[in-house]
Amino acid sequence: MNKRIFREIRQNIGRYAALLLLTVIAVGMGVGFIAGTDSAENAYSDFLEQSCLEDAYITLESSLDNEIRSDIESLGIKVYDDFYSDQSYKEDVTVRLLNERAEVNTPYIAEGALPKESGEIFLDQLFASAQSIEVSDKMNIGGREYTVSGIGAFPDYTISLNDQTQMIADRASFGVAIISKDDFDTISSDKLMYNYALIYDDKDMDYTARKELLRSAVKNAACVAPIQNYGNLDEAFNKMSNASEISSYCGSDDNKRISPVIKKMESNKSMAIMFVGIVIVIIGFMYCVFIKHTIDKECSVIGTLMALGVKKKDILVSYILPPCLVTFIGSVLGCILGATVLYKLPITSLEGYYSIPTGDIKVSASILLTALSAPTILIILINTVAILRKLHIKPLRLIRKDLSKKSERTKSLFNSMSFDFRFRLRIFNQSIGTYIFMFIGIFLGGWLMIFGIGMSSSFDGYIEQQTDNAVCKNQYMISEPYEADNNDAEKATVGGFDYYNKALDQTYNLTGIGVAENSRYFPNVKNIGFGETVITSAASKKFGLKEGDSITLQNSSTGVSESYTIIGVVDYNMGLAVFMEQKEMNNIFRKFSDYYNYYFSDNDINIPDNILVSHISVSDMEKSGQIMKDVMKTMIVMFPVAAIIIYLIIMYLLIKMVYSKNETGISMMKIFGFKEKEIRRIFISTNTIVAVLLIFLSLPLQHMLMMAIWPSCIKTIGGYLDFIMTIKEYLIVIAACLICYIITNILSYRHIKNIPMTIALKCQDR
Question: Is 612 part of any domain?
Answer without folding.
Answer: no
